[in-house]
Design goal:
Helix 8 crosses helix 14. The longest helix is centred in the N-terminal third of the chain and has 16 residues. This protein is 35% helix and 20% strand. It folds into two domains: 244 residues, Peroxisomal Thiolase, Chain A, domain 1 (3-Layer(aba) Sandwich); 152 residues, Peroxisomal Thiolase, Chain A, domain 1 (3-Layer(aba) Sandwich). It contains 14 helices and 16 strands.
Length: 411
């Protein structure tokens, strides 16, 4: 190891279409009968892609209370629910912690887009006097982090990350840097997203980025499969509690894993396409490995970005093979959570922690036909047991935002 601080992961919070709560979400992505919740929201009616991964059975008002939910768009509600679970899982007593030393860093690509859409319709149909005065605080990307701070009483740095689909991973990496700087002892970090937005999905259809398999929606998301035709949007939140190791030890916390390395880069190539050579994500990966003080041969598992788009999956797989060779077991859990955009990195970091903990790599659901151009070991059909001490998480986002993490079994 490099001797640099490795953050202790002491708590997880997951709200996903594969399961609500970290235990349920893990069963949902690793179990033999894993089935995610596919919904057909009214907002998407008649679009070429009229389906997405939803969490319709979640009573946010019952959990958070009506007054609180009226001040939060859905992505913030999901973030608060995940944060509560993560803090409880870490054994943190929010009435006794040093709140000034607790930070919150949450990523989101779009923030409160559904409420923004709704208020645009109100403006057009009913006029300016009927527009809600809550538009700004509910729709800005920072509202998830601020909502978590207010709910838990955290008074340290409150930061929001918006780097498209790498936002959640960048948030966790930023949390690691905060701990290393000495600015805080505890950071709640990850991502949250809910884009039940007719406007956004209509645009994604026009871009041909999403799958249009309306007759087979439950298996439409097929990362790394030869017949993949685009991603399927999901909603959710995934947060981890990170601590300075000495802080976790002093309070007797259970350490679930470590975040040992972080790397980020920009492709500086195109608005919606990664560098076709994969130079950006490769650079982020190699920086993360060097930061953690490990070699590519140490990585036994990669939770890949794996969106189910034709070119992105090919580029990412080529880079993974270039960096790691044939050895790591690769999976994309998006086939069971959907592509949760800015939340993806947070959700998938938590799932990588669970993979290390259980020494089990979830299968890539819906993987049926091997793409001969994909040169990596994609775990398919059923979860695979393995012995590994290190895992990697990769993320890529529109605008050329790349990020990678190295996780360790202990810290």
């Amino acid at each position: 190891m490099s001797g640099r601080l490795t953050a202790a992961v002491t708590g997880l919070g997951l709200v996903t279409a594969a399961g609500v709560g970290s235990a349920a979400a893990w069963r949902g992505v690793s179990g033999p009968d894993a089935v995610a919740e596919i919904g057909h929201p009214d907002e998407l009616a008649d679009l070429p892609c009229d389906f997405m991964y939803t969490i319709d059975n979640l009573d946010t008002q019952g959990i958070l209370g009506v007054p609180a939910t009226r001040m939060m768009d859905r992505f913030s509600q999901l973030a608060v629910i995940a944060a509560r679970e993560a803090a409880a899982d870490a054994g943190l007593d929010t009435s006794e912690w040093d709140a000034d030393r607790v930070a919150v860093v949450i990523g989101s690509a779009h923030g409160g887009l559904p409420f923004y859409d709704q208020q645009s319709i109100v403006l057009a149909d009913k006029g300016a006097r009927r527009v809600s005065p809550k538009l700004a605080p509910m729709t800005t990307v920072n509202s998830a982090a601020s909502s978590v701070c207010m709910d838990l009483g955290a008074r340290g740095p409150s930061l929001s990350v918006s780097t498209a689909c790498s936002s959640g991973t960048v948030a966790v990496g930023t949390a690691l840097q905060l701990l290393r700087s000495g600015a805080c002892d505890v950071v709640i970090a990850g991502g949250a997203e809910s884009v039940r937005s007719r406007l956004l999905i209509a645009s994604a259809c026009q871009m041909r980025a999403v799958s249009t398999r309306r007759d087979d929606a439950s298996t439409a998301c097929r990362p790394f499969d030869a017949d993949r035709d685009g991603f399927v949007v999901g909603e959710g939140a995934g947060l981890v509690v990170l601590e300075r190791p000495e802080h976790a030890k002093a309070r007797g916390a259970r350490v679930r894993a470590g975040i040992a390395g972080y790397g980020a880069s920009s492709d500086a190539f195109a608005a919606v396409a990664p560098d076709p050579d994969g130079a950006g994500i490769e650079r982020a990966l190699r920086v993360a490995l060097a930061d953690a003080g490990v070699s590519p041969a140490d990585i036994g598992h990669v939770n890949a970005h794996g969106t189910s788009t034709v070119m992105n999956d090919l580029i990412e797989a080529t880079v993974l093979h270039r960096v790691f060779g044939d050895e790591p077991l690769v999976t994309s859990t998006k086939a069971l959570t959907g592509h949760t955009l800015g939340a993806a990195g947070g959700i998938e970091t938590a799932l990588a922690v669970l993979a290390l903990e259980h020494q089990l790599v979830p299968a890539t659901a819906n993987f049926r036909t091997r793409d001969v151009r994909i040169p990596i070991d994609v775990v398919a059909k059923e979860a695979r047991s393995a012995r590994f001490d290190c895992a990697a998480k990769t993320s890529m986002g529109f605008g050329g935002h790349n990020a990678a993490l190295v996780l360790t079994k202990s810290c």
